[in-house]
């Protein structure tokens, strides 16, 4: 049943709040917010363009750890502008976020991969009159981070990366690595490869890249569960990054923000372009800009070109979606969800992404996101 708005009705406080161990934020901000004069009655922060609208109370969301650092910034800015509102985002994994969404325990979920058909079908039980849709909100490079004493720069192509993670290349002085890094002294040291222990959209996006750029070396389906034998598992992008940071000879994959914040060097990718491509927000944006919307209706799932050879385009990218109901959202969360996602999709919200190692969503696609958020019911 679609949400019917009654005159004078304002969103009530959310139900029970599940507390995230990683992020427990209390509402802050000034009481100096003033009503806009545009006739809508929307409340706008005096210090920013964030419109709080009918948002109030507490909102719980969960999912992708890939977007945690972006979400931290967004939540901080939003709560500073919207007095009396509390947003709690539990950073876990894409798989766990979608499960929580389809169980109706969160207002929205974060996922590094679009909903599968069976997950969309499951969402109809919660969305009632509608279904779950994908709203691309965060873009960015997946860094191949490494820890190798004395080696500050490293270039690898897709087949080599695939063979490292499937256990076929076991030493850092393997001929395939040496050939791509002439002039670099590589040690006779065992490679310690780390991957995600839980279902992860980051894993799936790495799999899509390897499946497109190194088909013979990576014959696995691109799924959220780690498919290859060997290696060592760690929980969350933060867990993989922590292991790479601590273990000499380690290599792993995680969002660039984790590499940047912990000073972990990242592999340059030899795509066949004129020069190996560095993992940067700008280079990821070049790859994401070529994405096409493959979703139908209000769903904005994207198709990325993981095999790109364009100069300066970093190919191992992900787009993190916020998963919401197109219609049938809970009355007690709708105003807050719309207000918060309106901010994250705004020019102001997208601008902060580059400061944290992420890439803003391309303008044309982001315009569709804003339009869809405005029409949520």
UniProtKB/TrEMBL annotation:
This is Phosphate-binding protein. Residues 55-348 form the PBP domain. SUPFAM superfamilies: Periplasmic binding protein-like II (SSF53850). PANTHER family: PHOSPHATE-BINDING PROTEIN PSTS (PTHR42996). It comes from Streptomyces albipurpureus. Residues 1-27 form the signal peptide. Keywords: Phosphate transport, Signal, Transport. The keyword Transport applies. The lineage of its organism: Bacteria, Bacillati, Actinomycetota, Actinomycetes, Kitasatosporales. It comes from the Bacteria. Belongs to the PstS family.
